[in-house]
Amino acid sequence: MMNKRFYLIIWLCCLPLLMMAATRQIKIDTNTLSLVFQVGDNGRFYQSYLGKRLHSQTDLSQLALGTEAYITHGMEDYFEPAIHVVHNDFNSSLLLKYQSHEVKQASDGASETIVTLQDDKYPVTVKLHYVAYVNEDIIKTFTEISHQEKKPVELQKFASSMLHFNNAHYYLTEFSGDWAEEVRPAIQPLFFGKKVIDTKLGSRADMFVSPFFQLALGQEATETNGEVLLGTLGWTGNFQFIFEVNQLNGLRVISGINPYSSAYTLNPNEVFRTPDFYFTYSFNGTGEASRNFHRWARKYQIKDGDKTRFTLLNNWENTSFNFNEEKLVSLMGEAKDFGLDIFLLDDGWFGTKYPRNDDRQGLGDWTEIKDKLPHGVGYLTEAAKQKGVKFGIWIEPEMVNPKSELYEKHPDWVIHLPNRDEYYFRNQLVLDLSNPQVQDYVYGVVDGLMTKYPEIAFFKWDCNSPITNIYSYYLKEKQTHLYIDYVRGLYNVLERVKAKYPNLPMMLCSGGGARTDYEALKYFTEFWASDNTDPIERLYIQWGYSQVFPSKVICAHVTSWNRNTSIKFRTDVAMMGKLGFDINLSGLNADEATFCKQAVKNYNALKPVILDGDMYRLVSPYEGNHTSTMYVSENQNKAVVFAFDIHPRYSEAVWPVKLQGLNPNKQYRVQEINRMPNARGGQYAEPKTYSGEYLMQVGLNLFSAYGTNSRVIEVTAE
Ligand code: DGJ
User: Fold this and answer.
1) CATH of segment(s) 617-717
2) What is the pTM of this model?
3) What is the pLDDT of residues 639-680, one digit of tens each?
4) CA 543/CA 111 separation, integer angstroms
5) pLDDT beneath 50, residues of the chain
6) Domain 24-297: which CATH class?
7) Which atom of ligand 1 lies closest to the CA of 509?
8) Of the residues 68, 243, 379, 433, which has the fewest C-beta atoms closer than 10 A?
9) Would you say the CB of residue 582 lies under 6 angstroms from ligand 1?
10) What is the bridge-based pairing of β-strands 110-119 and 96-105?
11) How do the domains of the chain map onto residue ranges?
12) Nearest ligand 1 atom to alpha carbon 394
C-alpha cells in the first residue's frame, strides 16, 4: 500500500514535467519518417531529428535540442537565414519564440501540424505548417508570415522550408539543361559553403533548371540503395534552393521563392503565404523516393490524378503553321484511324489583322485566321465530332507579339520598360498578370473559346518567353512585387478556369518543359516534357522527369525527330509516358501503320499499369548503352517492361535485366508485345512462364548488341 502511494505521489510530481516534455517536443510522423522539433529553455524552436521513424518514447527524450528550425536574420547565426524582415523602425532583426501548436487531421489521411512562433519585441507571427501524408511518406511544408506593426514591413527573405542535416557526406543531384535538353542530372558533393540552385526567368521559369533535387546523405545513393531526400517546390515562377554547409559540417536546405528582386511590402494583418515545399526521404535509394512522389501526386496533387489520360494526334511537328481546314479535317480522320482520342490543333490558327503564319505576329489576338479557317473553330469541332475524335486547341494566353491588335490597344498590359528599346524572346513579350484586368483578359481567352465552342475538349497552354524588359505599369512603386504577383495572378486565372471547367483536361507547355512544378499540376493534367522528341534524347529526358513526376503527366509523342530510328523504337519510348503522335501518319508504310495501330491498342490496354502502376527504373541510360524501365500494377498481377539498346559497342557483352516489384511467389506469363508485323525470332515472342522470384533474381535477356533496338514485354500473373 505504502509502495503504491509513494509511486502515485512521485507520478503526480512528475506529471507537469511529463506534460511539459509532451508539449515541448513535437513529432511529425509518416509510416517510415519522423521529423522531431523541440522547444528550448529559451523558448526558441529547434529541429532535433529528421530520419527513419522513431518509435520509442524514451529515445525521444534523449534527442539533443538540434538547430533552430526557421533561422532569422539579424541574430547570432552566421549563415543563410530562412526569413529576413525589416520593421517600421528599420531594425531588421527577428527572434522567434514558440507560442503554440495544433494538429489537424484531414479526412484524406493527411495530418497537419501548425506551429506558431512569435517575436517578443515586434508583433510578427510566423506559422510553420507541416502536412504529413502518412502512407505515401511525403511531407508538405509552408510558412505564413504576418504582423501587426503600425505600417507595412518589408520581407526580404521568406522561405517555405528550412531543414537541417548532420551527416559525414552530402551528395546533391540537380537537374539542369536548356531548351531541348531538359533535366540532365549532375551529382556533386557538398562541402563548406553554399550551393544555390535558382531561377530568375519569371514566366518560363524552369528553362535552365527544374524545381526539384535529390540529396543523398552519408554516401551516394543508387536506385535501390542509400538514404536520399527528394524535394520539390510548387511554384510556377522564380524558385530557389540553398544548400549551405557550415564549419561543423551541418547542412541547411532552404527552399522557397527566389527573393531576388522581390522584396515584399507586407501590410499589417496581411498574411504572406509561401508556396509549398514537398519532400520524401527514402532509405532504399532514389527509386523508392520517386515512387512515393508518384503515388502521392496521383492521389493528392495533380489535376484528375485518379483519372486516365487521352492519347492524341498533334499537328505541330507535321504541319507547323502551314495548314488549312481541309488538311486539319484529314488529320482528324487519321487520328481516328489510328485509334487516337483527340486531335490537337497547335499554334497558327489565329490573328485577324496580323495573321499568325509564323511566330512574329498575331499572338494575343484569339480570333481565327480567315484564310486558313474560313468557317472558324466551330467547323473544326463539328468535323472532329463527325470523325469520332475529340478536339483540342493550342493557346499561349499570357503572351503577346508586339505586332498584334492586343499590343496596339493595351500597351500598358504588357511587361515592358517605358523608356527603353524592347528586347524580344521569340519575338514576344509577357502580359502583366499582376494586373487584375489582365487576369480577366487571360481567363477570357479560355472562357471565350469555351463559351463560343463548347465542344473544345482539351487545351495546350504554352508559355514561350521568360519575363523580359521587367516593368509593370500596374504595380507602379511596387515593382519588386512583380515576380511574385505575376505567379499569384496566374493562379487566380487557373482557379477560375478550373472552377468553371472542372472536367477540361489541359496540357502545360513552356517551349518544351520549362514549367514543371506541382502547384501548376493542380490545374493541368499533364505537361509537355521537351520539344526534343528524338527518342534517344527522350530516354534521358523522361528518365529525368520520372525522378519526381509520374508517367501520367509526362507527355511523350512519336515524331519524325531522328529518322534513323524505327517507328517502333520511337513508339516504344513514347509509350512510357502519356502517349501521343505528332507525325505525318499518312506517310508511314503499311507495316509501320499496322504497328502503330496495334501499339495504340496495347497502350490503351496497359494504361492502368503504365499510368497508375509503380515505376521501377531498372537500368539507367546514363550508365551505358542500354536502358530499361518497368511498371507494376498495385496488386502485382500485371507489369510492362521496356528495354532499349542505344548505341552498343561492337560485340558488347550484355547482362539479363533483373525485374523489380513483382510478387516472388506468383507465376508470371512473359510475352513480347509491340512487335513489328512479320518480325521473326525473339526469345519472348511466344509466352513463357517464370516465378516472380526468377524474374527478380535471374532476370530476362532483354538487351542486344543492335543499335536503337527496343522491346516491350508484358508480364501477367497466372
Ligand atoms: C513551343 C511548344 O513546345 C511546341 O510544342 C509548339 O506548341 C510551339 N511552341 C508552337 O509555337
Assistant:
1) 2.60.40.1180
2) 0.96
3) 999 999 999 999 899 999 999 999 999 999 999 999 999 999
4) 32
5) 1-2, 6-22
6) mainly beta
7) 3
8) 379
9) no
10) antiparallel
11) 24-297, 617-717
12) 7
